[in-house]
Fold this sequence. Notes:
The complex is a heteropentamer.
Chain B: H1 2-11, H2 13-32, H3 66-102, H4 104-119, H5 122-133, H6 139-149, H7 152-166, H8 169-176, H9 181-217, H10 228-237, H11 246-274, H12 276-283
Chain C: E1 11-15, H1 41-45, E2 50-52, E3 63-65, E4 73-74, E5 80-84, H2 99-111, H3 118-124, E6 125-132, E7 135-140, E8 152-153, H4 163-166, E9 186-191, E10 197-202, E11 221-225, H5 230-238, E12 244-245, H6 250-259, E13 263-265, E14 274-276, E15 278-284, H7 294-302, H8 306-314, H9 329-336, H10 340-345, E16 348-349, E17 354-355, E18 358-359, H11 362-371, H12 384-391, E19 395-396, H13 400-409, E20 413-415, E21 418-420, E22 428-433, H14 439-454, E23 458-463, H15 467-472, E24 479-486, H16 495-498, H17 524-535, H18 542-557, E25 560-562, E26 566-568, E27 571-573, E28 577-578, H19 598-603, E29 605-606
Parallel strand pairs in C: 1-11, 2-8, 22-23, 22-24
Antiparallel strand pairs in C: 2-3, 4-5, 5-7, 6-7, 9-10, 10-11, 12-27, 13-27, 14-26, 15-24, 15-25, 16-17, 18-19, 20-21, 28-29
Chain D: E1 3-16, E2 23-36, E3 40-45, H1 51-59, E4 66-75, E5 82-83, H2 89-95, E6 100-103, H3 117-129, H4 133-146, H5 163-175, E7 181-185, H6 193-210, E8 213-217, H7 221-227, E9 230-235, E10 238-244, H8 245-250, H9 255-262, E11 311-314, E12 317-319, H10 322-325
Parallel strand pairs in D: 3-8, 3-9, 6-7, 7-8
Antiparallel strand pairs in D: 1-2, 1-4, 4-5, 9-10, 10-12, 11-12
The complex binds adenosine-5'-triphosphate (2 copies) and magnesium ion (2 copies).
The site of one adenosine-5'-triphosphate (ATP) has 13 residues of chain D, from β2 and α1.
Amino acid sequence: MSALLSLSHVTKVYRQGGMLGRRLITAVKDVSFELGEEPEILSIVGESGSGKSTIAAMILGQTEPTEGELQFSGRTVAIHSRAERRAFMKEVQPVLQNPFEAFNPLKRVDRYLFETARNFSFSGKRPDREQAERMADAALVHVGLTLEEVKGRFPHELSGGQLQRVAIARALIPQPRLLVADEPVSMVDASLRMAIVNLFGRLKNELGLSIVYITHDLATAYYISDNIIIMRKGEIVERGQARTVLDNPQHPYSRALKDAVLAADFSPAT
Amino acid sequence: MFTIVRDLARQNMEFLCGLLLFAVIVGLIVVSYFSPYGATDIYLLPPDMPPDGEYWLGTTSRGQDVFWQLTTALRNTLFFGIGVAFISRIISLVVGLVAGYAGGAVDRVLMAINDSVMVIPQFPLLILFYFVLKDSMTWTALIVIMASLGWSYDARLIRSVAISLKTRSFTTQSVYSGMSMRKILVEEHLPYVLPIVFATTMNNMIWSIGMEITLSVLGFTDIETPTMGMMIYWANAHSALISGIWWWVAAPVAVIVVLFLALFLLSMSMNEYNDPRSRLNRMGS
Amino acid sequence: DDYTSLPRKETLIVENPEGTIKNPGWFNIWVNGGGGVSTGLQQLTMDTLWYIDPEQGLGGATWDNSLAADKPQYNADFTEMTVKLRKGLFWSDGVEFTADDVVYTVKTQMDHPGMVWSAAFSVQVASVEATDPSTVVFKLKKPNSRFHAIFTVRWNGAWIMPKHVFEKVEDPLRYDFANPVSLGAYKLKSFDPQGKWYTWEKRDDWQRTSLARFGEPAPKYVTYTDPGPPDKRTIAQLEHNLDIIHDNTPEGMFTLKEKSKSIETWFPGFPFAHPDPTLPAVIFNTQDPPFDNADVRWALALLIDIKAVDMASYRGAATLSALGVPPTAATMKDYQAPMQDWLKNFEIDTGKSKIKPYDPTVGQQIADILRKQPKFKDQIPTDPQAISGAFGYGWWKPDPKAAGELLEKAGFKKSGGKWLTPDGQPFKIRMTVEGDTRSVFTRAGTLIAQQWAAFGIDAKAVPAAKLWQVALQPGDFQVAIAWSVETWGGDPDLSFFLDSWHSQFVAKKGDNQPPRNWQRWSNPELDKIIESIRGISADDPKGVELGKDYLKLVAREMPTIPLMSYNVFTSMDTTYWTGYPTISDPYTDPVPNWANSRLMMVKLKPAQPK
Amino acid sequence: MDPLVEIENLKAYYRAFLYGVDREVRAVDDISLTIARGEVYGVAGESSSGKTTLIKTIAGAIRPPLRVVSGKVTFHFDGGTQDIYAMKPEERLALRWRHLSYIMQGSMNVLNPVRRIRHSFTDFAFRHMKVGKSEFFERVATHLQRLKLDPHLLDAYPHELSGGMRQRMTIALATILTPEFIIADEPTTALDVIVQRDVLSMIREIQREMGSSFLFVTHDMGVHATVSDRIGIVYAGRLVEEAPTAKLFNMPLHPYTQHLVGSLPRIGDATARPSLEGRPPNLAMPPEGCRFHPRCPKRMEICSRKVPPLVTVEPQRRVACFAVTGDQV
Amino acid sequence: MTSYLLFVLKRFGQFLLVVFLGVTITFFVTHLTPIDPVEESIGAITQMGQSDPNAIELMRQSLRELYGMEGSIWQQYLHFWLRLATGDLGPSLSAFPTPVSTIILRSLPWTIGLMTMSTLITFVLGNAIGALAGYYRKNMVMKAVSLVFIALLPIPYYILAFVLLIVFGYLWPVLPINGGYEMNANLDLSFALVLDILKHSILPAFSLILVGTGSWLIGMRALVSNIITEDYVVFAELGGVPKRKILRSYISRNAMVPQFTGLAMSLGAIFNGTVITEIVFGYPGIGNLLIEAVHAGDYSLVLGLSALSIVGVAAAVFIIDILSPLIDPRIKVE
Ligand SMILES: Nc1ncnc2c1ncn2[C@@H]1O[C@H](COP(=O)(O)OP(=O)(O)OP(=O)(O)O)[C@@H](O)[C@H]1O
Ligand SMILES: Nc1ncnc2c1ncn2[C@@H]1O[C@H](COP(=O)(O)OP(=O)(O)OP(=O)(O)O)[C@@H](O)[C@H]1O
Ligand SMILES: [Mg+2]
Ligand SMILES: [Mg+2]
């Protein structure tokens, strides 16, 4: 079966310290999972330091696994030539954690939209300014913004929610098939958080985008994702359909995790 | 732009003083082009005249008007300092940004070169260059040589910032926007290191101008081009300090001090303006 | 206190112009080992056969038989020289000085290439032997009427080595001669391990040295020190911490004269300084066109306004010379004065006209200019004789018209205010000057370049920190300010420098030129003069006539443009010592790094009672 | 009710009139509230609605360009009355930490990175304790243990601790002197859910024991539900609703609060949650009238004209919405 | 700990590489000099009164042999390293046959003494004033003091030193102006000697301090004005930590981290000497030695001195790199 993304027995060992007296840290240990051709949202949750970001980095090709193989569309994710890299980035795009950090405060935000448009055109030709603007605008419309609202603005002139949406719009311009979002909503308030999560759902349905959604927030994971992976100390402790797993977690850690979630309903304090 | 300058001048004493002092320097440079005397001509005027109505800053023992000498010397020295600073900034930026961003082997190679340049003693090297190049040791050549000696420390500084910029998420964002390394360095990282660049520029100018003066005092530079160093050289060759011709020495020293105070005050207030945190601090005052 | 225990009243403090000594513990003067030479070492502890004083000398003659009892005796064809030595002279360690020391000196150096006089001996000496304890016979490889010059001190000479010390040494080239054994009236007391000062103490047995003939040296101690740059020397002397300044800037000298009541100088008034027997000149590289053409050289000479150059360099405190010898007292008498008439009638042909370029009144004019400056009014002599002695007789008149004609004669053209060489290129002159080292020359060169530039020549002065090594020696220059003429000073014999001007020594273009013919000029007529001088003995009166022939030749050919004396601004403080040499008692050169300055020791008198 | 802190008509603006910039950000615009002794008061609201500014102003931690334009902040420490903006700087300094401690936003990064944590305790608290060094550290150790922190960590540098540990350290530092009033700005952001739960219950425990009052801000409504006695909702520089926790969650009155509470996803409930339309108001140019009206599903004509006053609708419960209170003054 | 050791080893490798490259560059540059030590020696010898061109040619040959200048530059280069490996810098060419090391060791203690003292004083003074000026930004006294030092900074050092010399050595002659100790001093170790040496170092050190303080001050002031907006400083202020404590332990302490790098570099650069100080005050040291060696074409000595300075600076960089994880606990050993 062809999968969009597949990880088979992926292990990542980080070296800390010098060349010989190194301390080895197994950030990810023998992790395998697949994303099918069908668009889906896969949530990865777990304690901090459990290797979630490392998985994201490997999917994005920023770092190579120590063992095991990652394949995207049947091809190994490995960085070789610039052209290969570019082709890969056209298909897989990241959404970063902190919208305020993701834009250079000294530069206008539209710059990233235009750059992306110019560097990843579909026709192979470098689009001119007007085409680039059209592509940017189209992407912004998907996230509920317009180019007009964004053009010429500096990051500090936009709200966090707007910025995060611009960042997502930018990632949509190459018309990728996979978004990798590492804690994309941890820095925004409760209502914005919902706006972005809802947006993910819409993108999946309307554009057929698959999304790897890494989060601490079990509630949004439950709310939006199709499948879920629960990690601890580099290993997957539980996986399955998001709702099935969270409604009835099996692994003790999953249960502890679920129990620790502070429900946003009023229950008289103990 | 105008309102920024106006507000800076109104609110910021340092900026105002710096601006005024800088205006004096610019004024001197502008009038240097209208000098009634050839810059290298000597014995045109009665020597050793103290400052008075006719010769504002007196005359030298070589029969030159100190004021007009000074304007040309200032111009040449400043262009020299700026030239050195400009070229060495470019080198240190390229090395620092590339080493910091690329990391790995590139970083190690660049830093080995960088450190090697840093450890080589500059002074004997400069003198050797004089001996080797002789007549071809023009001002341009000196600028290039000084520039190629004066970048390494700052390159290290820039590299340390570049390393942290590399881990900022906007860099990742740029990479995934398909920007090339050159573009990321020039358009994303460069603006961040500019404040450091400005700050080091002044040190670099003090260093290069001081070096020029030292070389002049030791008799190594082109004696026909009037510079601050040359003025001091000639004053020294005529025992000006001990003979009571103090104005010959005091005038260039005063101008150098004014120049750097102006640069310092301006850079200080500009940095404050540039850094939103300190800018806002001042607003409330 | 015994921390700095020398009694000031018994100590003479002298500047050593060598500055700080790099290898202070090195006293082996026969090896160039980075030690000082004029730290007192050569002035106070060394001795050799003969001295010629650059001024009048003590004992009635400039010639002095020092270790030798008599003048050198040559055989008829100048292939053998016999020396009779004085008896009763002792080294400071009590060993007697004998002919063996002389023989040892020569042989040891010949055996050790790399020692200072080794090559000079090897080239000339076939054999040397002591026929008895006070007679040495030299057999020469080829005739030389002036072989004795190597043992004759002008500034210095081949010093005699203590055989009994060196023969115990394994390798004289590597021996530092610490605690130097002295043949002079002083011996080492202490020195600064950092090379800033050397102090010498009068020997108890000073009577057993050659200097004793002139009396007892007065200072018990003599310290040679590096007082630092000129301004610091001035300060030190104003505070009476430095008895003799070797040299100063003109301005430093004026300041001293103005501020100190106790300063004595060679000339009591202008120009104060002592004229060294060297001749600063504009030196052309005559192997380089267009400077191979005498017309061009003359044209450039006629563009110089010497009064302005004099004021710029020495501020008037110079002694001019139009002739190719330094204007010292002796040459003034022997050459400058007698040749005035010839100079006045001397003509050159510009191609269009004949002119008489000499202006005999320049010295007078400079005196007049200086007299107008209130500061110096009283210090300018009025007697014409004294004026000539102080400022020189005359010099060439600036004559731009004649200069232009000469240039045209040489094929130059003027176009748009600029002179073009015969091949149509702009006439560009780079005048190499010495920079900081001798800043008065730099000042002179800068002004001369400016005067040429004013005439439409692209002329500019460029400094070279090591003028001799990087420009003169390799011939890598067009025009330079330096000197290629250097005389005995106290003797009219010109062979001291002239011999090396023989065409046999002129290097090919690109090769290193041996001293002193830096202009690389050769002329058959000159060769004849030199050869004639070689054929006569040094004290032959015909030597002066040959010298005049040389002067006339170089006046016509102008291979260098002689400017003025190399004035050394020596100043002497009379707070502790009096009896310094001056123009009124010119018993020796006051410049204290000359070995002859040992004569001062016997003439000085303490100014204050003990 | 025994008030510990009274805030009256507080206005705090960021003012920038320089360098070609001409802007006034009304981050706190006419807020009044009272916090009782022993009460935990939670503040929630949108990003950049002025929550941090509000509690900075209460803590007296203002620096240019922030300025208190009008209003009063009064404390009743030790039974007295202290008007923080009328005091001399020395007196204000004397209140700090002894009576009032403040955990800033980003509390995992407020410890001096190049000094051992031990020194921070000495600097902040030693003066006030009036005990010897060894006893002081004994007390510190005991206190740390309550927060499940190993006393050995005192000898660590901040960067050697995880974000959660650092936040707990800061909390320990803020509570060691048992001040009467503790202010905290998003104190648990760096903690994962399991650790967060532990920390919160400890804070609550300590606060009860000491009888301190606690004012804190967080985005996490779950935290509010667990810890706060009362909650104030801030929107665009204004307090729009204030209610005891149970009432706020069970029956929010203000449309913004309703949206906030209603949009929260819950595990076990997969129904779609709407997101709020429009975008947060620009505090430099806030909308006329009710600041929420451009995004309000229940907006009325008057809302764009008039500022709804904060009206006490029942004891301990205030709301500023014409739709709730009607068009009364 | 082993990882730290390994880091140190790796850095040490880099240190060796840098020294190797630096010395190599210097070797070839110094050998480019047109000044031939043999010709220099001949110049010195002919000054002693002989100029027979035949003799000079002979002299040239024998000196060339004596100084070991035969062979191609590559052979000499190889030879240089072989000798250096045994710790031998070879004989000086302008003070033949005295070993380069003897000459250097004679001057080195003076340079080290003077420069270490003045660098440390300058460092402390500049940073203290800079910290105060950065913290109390509106204080007029601090403003004035720092402006004075900043104004001194660009004054050509030669002039400043000379003015000091004239003022304290001539107009108001209270301090010695020449050398490292009195002329004719008794150099046996005594209290009087130590006192005298200290007295002689006052003016040179003072001049270095006057020009040097400004740059530390500027750097410190800038660092401090950045640091005072850091959260941990604000937090300490809010925590009622006394101002003096904040200035000392929160602001200065943290700003010192980069300043220490600068200090190490300056201490490393001590081996460059201070030519002008040595010229103006006649102070013993290696700066002047270096200039003279360059002038004399004594590349043995130039190389010896340069190697010293290269090792000095490289060692400073190395030491600071291996110490920085200890000074600044945040720096991770990669
Ligand atoms: N570049 C690196 N070098 C060495 N170790 C690393 C590196 N990046 C991560 N690690 C280590 O790998 C482990 C997993 O880190 P990772 O960032 O993937 O965790 P995470 O699950 O994303 O945690 P969080 O929820 O806190 O973001 C951690 O122990 C971390 O310290
Ligand atoms: N120093 C400042 N200068 C000018 N405006 C500021 C400054 N600090 C904050 N603001 C503005 O004041 C408003 C309120 O900011 P504040 O930090 O109080 O928000 P917040 O509610 O704490 O937000 P968050 O939840 O993101 O922490 C925002 O619009 C912000 O842009
Ligand atoms: Mg992560
Ligand atoms: Mg906040």
